[in-house]
Amino acid sequence: METVAGAPPGPTHRLLAVGDVQLHSVDIGQGEPVLLLPGWPQTWYAWRHVVPLLAAEGRRVIVLDPRGLGGSEKPAHGYDLDTVAADVHGFLTQAGLVDAGGLDIVSHDVVVLGGLRAGLCLPE
To answer: Which of 10, 25, 37, 63 suits 105 as a labelling partner, its CA being 20 to 30 A distant?
Structure first.
């Protein structure tokens, strides 16, 4: 990850148990949270140029490796949109972001459908 003036030092890598899977995430910065979801078959590293820019602007940036990708577990099942949405919602809950008072979610590719479904079907 490149260094950007005003960005905090390197990210923290975490594993959280979400349902039947361990999901890997990267967390950096402080402030209003923003969750970045990479497209298929990408990992948090796809956002490596964006993360320090957002952190330098005073955002807490969290990037999630979806089930089966990067540092997340790779089970034989659970790649349908309902499970992806449940993973995103479960991650947000376990990470304490559901009650954070606001959260931006940025996604692209097919994973955007899981993020959208999580927001629409699980609005709390």
So the answer is: 10
Segment 83-108 shows an average pLDDT of 85
Q: Which is it for strands 32-37 and 59-64: parallel, antiparallel or unpaired?
A: parallel
Nearest-CA neighbor of 98 among 25, 54, 35?
35
Cα–Cα distance measured from residue 10 to residue 17, given in angstroms and rounded to the nearest whole number: 23
Establish if 7 belongs to a structural domain: no
Q: Assign 21 a pLDDT band (cuts: 50, 70, 90).
A: very high
1 has pLDDT over 70: no
Closest to 51 (Cα-Cα) out of 74, 28, 83, 17: 28
Parent domain of 78: 12-121
Alpha-carbon torsion (97, 103, 108, 109), positive or negative: positive
Number of domains in the chain: 1
Task: State the pLDDT at residue 111.
Answer: 56
pTM as predicted: 0.83
